[in-house]
Amino acid sequence: MTGSINKQSSLLLALLCLFFWPGPSGSLFARHPVSREHPRLLGSSEELKELARQRQADWIRVVEVVNQREGGDHERMIGMSLMYVIEGNEAIGKRAVETAMRYVDGPIRVGHVRFGDDLARCAIVYDLCYPLWSSDQREKFHRYVNATVDANVRSETSPFHNAWYSYKHWGFSMAAYACYYENERAPGILAAMEKDYRERVVPAFKLAGSGGGWAEGYYVNYWTYEWMFFCNVALRCEGVDYIGMSPEFLGQRAIACMFETFPGIGEHNSRRQIHMGDGCGKIPGNDRDKTLSARRILVNHFRSDPAHQAVHAFNEATPKSCMVVNAYKDFLWRDPGVQKGDLENFKLSHFSSGPGYVYARSSWNEDATYFFFKCGDRFTAHQHLDNGHFLIYKYSELAGDGGQYDGWNSPHEVNYLVRTIAHNTITVHDPGENWPDIRNGDVTGNDGGQHHDWPHHNGAVEDAAAWRAGREMYDIADMLAFEDRGDYLYAAGDCSRAYSAKKLDYFTRQIVYIRPGTFVIFDRVKSKNPGFEKKWLLQAMKPPSGEAPNLVVTNGRGRLFVQTLLPQNARTRLFSGSTLYSYGGRSYPPERVFGPLPECRIEVSPGEPSLEDFFLHVLTATDNTESSVAQAAAKVTGDEVTVTIGATRVVFKKNRVAGEVEISGRVSPLGGKIGSN
Length: 677
Hints:
The protein is 32% helix and 22% strand. The chain is of the alpha+beta class.
């Protein structure tokens, strides 16, 4: 009898999970049948007309973009469809249908191309302009949807990769909701996606995205908007809360995204996202607007949560998209009715355990000092060999990320950009070490960096189950400590397994960030052979002034003072100009450059070969009016390394990741375990 009751309870629970899912602040979204009325993707006709009345200024901008024929097909098709519904402009609506038919009648796109965008924009036109489609055109649209789905079953299958979302499934699913009752295959398309999402995507989100960061790096800015767009549609059309299924990643994504933004408002009143792995973002573009809109959709979803209300206050400092053609994004997603939170007193750091990211700021003022540190595992193709890497920003980038992403597998990308040499971390040079053909490119350089020993040429793994099965290969680094005590932040990572075990015993990095702008960085590095040269790397945005061990990097209004305290008698070399992209007797310059890149690589090496070396640096970020900072001093006694900066004292242990910090007379331990923020 008990077994029967348990079976009945399990069945009831399954049905509840099918029809309900926890939403914002513990509320329940009820799963409901898809409406038979068109339009439904973005709301009913009356809802969209009311939105235009409430957001009149934004709506006027949408109309102007359409009337002036600005933007590409995507922006115009959405704008024209909205104009048909809201203003009853039939001529504009027919123009939208004509544009959609060019895709419907065109060739079926297959593989690593953005066929999902094509489907999604046509789906919006189909839904919003439904009365203007002839029966023949509707049938053609259904065949186009089904044929694209069938042709791409094996395309973009990894949930660790951006294309699962923006290249493929947002388009499949938008189209399925658009023709849900007219295309008999539409419900099955949605059911297959939902099954894959629950079984493979949600575990991938938890594994590579806990805390809201994403291991793929900057590419998160290329796909989250499309997926958030679809998630909003699914919630509206059927009450399915795909966002709520992923509290570890999507529940934290807007917060992490805010922390992934450099301080300050730049060109076209836009904010720049930090660079992590492949990607650009160094000049204003569509990705900045997509990132803002993705945060807005998440804020709207979690509107009663104080943390998301703080994100809303952050968003409202840039109320318009930086590109005029994206006015429709502001119209649809900027909701001024959300309560603004207390951004000024919001936490100043965030830890994302999935990818192993630490973000920190000195304040929420636009002139704040910014810091990012990475120590995490391998999941997908667009990651770099950069564990232990950090960024420092004050008014502008000071310690940056080397190289230019401009393709995929050029000699520059596989020998420099992706490699450890282009990052702020450690290399250990074994003359006999070789690298595989990374990304099927021509790898000729031995930079002494982290390995690329994975089965696939791009280092990617298919999903969470495959990652766990191959954990010994992909689990390559651990964030050991994270703690923010207000006046200072402490982070520590073990990057040892990111390097070949044939050349390295261990490399651990400890960073004490003393607000507002001082960074104490202590590295323990032990090689297998004393002849394997170790190098401490810093990608300086401008060639430094001064002489080692005291260098000064000035970039615009920002300045970074670099003090090398250990190794004693260190050798410092600068690579800039024609030698910037050179090592090992070869040079790997990018084919083209757009946006600011580091102009000097600083390399610090021990003066004498040794199995074990300790690197100790104090970096201080200021504005460019400062001509000097407090001189740091280091003392090595037994098992301890002590650095003193004025009245501040930091102690590190040489034989383990531990120590203590003394600020204003208060002594606190530097623990070896992950704390909480």
